[in-house]
Amino acid sequence: MITSLHIKNIGIIDEITVNLNEGFNVLTGETGAGKTLIIDALSIICGDRFSKEMIRKDKDYSFVEACLYLPNSLYSEDSNVIVSREIYSNGKNLCKINGRFVTVSELREFMKNHIDIHGQNDNQKIMDVTTHIDYLDSFSDELKEEKEEYKSLYNEYMTLKAELKLNYGDDKEKQRTLDLLEYQLNEIDDANLKIDEEEYLEETKKKIQNMEKISSALNNSSMILNDTTLDSINEVLKSLSKIEDLDINYSKKYSELQSVYYDLEEIKKDLDGLNYDNYFDEQEANNVFERLDLIYNLKRKYGNDVEEILKYRNEIREKIESIKNLENYTQDLKLKLDNLNQIMNEKAINIDKIRRNKAVILEKRINKELEELEMKNAKFKINIENEEEFNINGLNKVEFLVCTNVGEDFKPLVKIASGGEISRIMLSIKSVLSEKDLVDTCIFDEVDTGISGKASKSVALKLNKISKSHQIICVTHSSIIAAASDYHYYISKSSDKNSTKTQVGLLDSDKSIEEIAKISSGIVNEMTKNYALELRNQFKIV
User: Fold this and answer.
1) What distance in Å separates the CA atoms of residue 260 and residue 241, rounded to the nearest whole number?
2) Can you name the CATH fold of 1-114+439-542?
């Protein structure tokens, strides 16, 4: 339960602290005094969205802090848990649970198990269709043991499925994986790659692209050697041959020049040969370009170079062998899953049977509550559907449906348009499930909206009943609902030249009677005070 609430810089609230009590807490006060802002502050501390426009004028942040009494809480040894949220105009959010920073989603997840807010436009736990199955199951003690056994099987089932998936999944998935790997392996093997091949092909490609230029240079070089250089050297050799035997030095130079002549002659032959080799026909050129395109394509898929591609090829080969060797292991997993599936199906069928039986009883009780709340034409229905896949709750999907007028179809709770209808439907459900509902605090914002005086008394009785097992915090304009409370808080505001501020005070018995009298008739005198006292006494007897 909430023991205290501290609010700072929200709307016209400058700074207030409200000490709350167990049982039925009601908030009344003049219009615009800040009653709904208190509910807004509770929504903020529960992790709901926050608009920067809510920050008090001329302030750059808002702050909400709540102290919760939660016996056996993991967050505290003394059962007191302090939750806070600080929001700045720049969008910064600071959330804490007992001094530890948490995210907004973590705060929301924690608070939804302790506070349930019902307002005209709020999303509440019971409006979330995923919680309906939990509400139905909480109505049946028989289901507790069955669900625990089923959940244990379900967890084992999901573990085996995950393990099977890690082992390349089911047969179809495994076959798809094998097909892909074998395709990749064949694509690489068919290419018949060699380590230095790409470098050689790149050089050849370069020659092909410059073939004309190369041919021209080689031809020109060969012609110069043949026509000029070799002929000139040959003439020199003829001259030196005439004197080579006259001196050793002449003979030496003759030999050196002759060696140069032979070398140049060999070079000319090589140049002629290179020029001959420089010829590529169209087919040869296409083969080079196609081969390089193939290598580029494989590099794009499997590696940065041929060496990496071949390394990846070996990895693929190992994976294929690994998958094929998993056949026996996966068969064992499948057998276990089949056995679990059969057991879980039997459990799920039994759970379904219990749920459907309990749903009939719960429907009748809630419909009776709706009649008492002056919704005689309304009908409540629990829709149970079977799903194909197992979930944590079995094979069922549960949704609460409502028909508010004769002749209309049943609709989901979220489709109900009238605020007064939503309020009373909520109360009917909570009244029946109040002993089972684990949420500590139920908050109602103007639960009396759109209902008559007769219905207000029924609402007050229901709130009074729920408050026996839950802390109730209710903003109301109804004197009847206010009279049914255990604690009565009055919200007021004061203004000066510069600002308006909200105040909250816990009324004693006499002040509470005066406020109830004022709400009921607009004036306070002995007659209206006696009427208020009579209302108060009626609920004390209940």
Assistant:
1) 15
2) Rossmann fold (3.40.50)
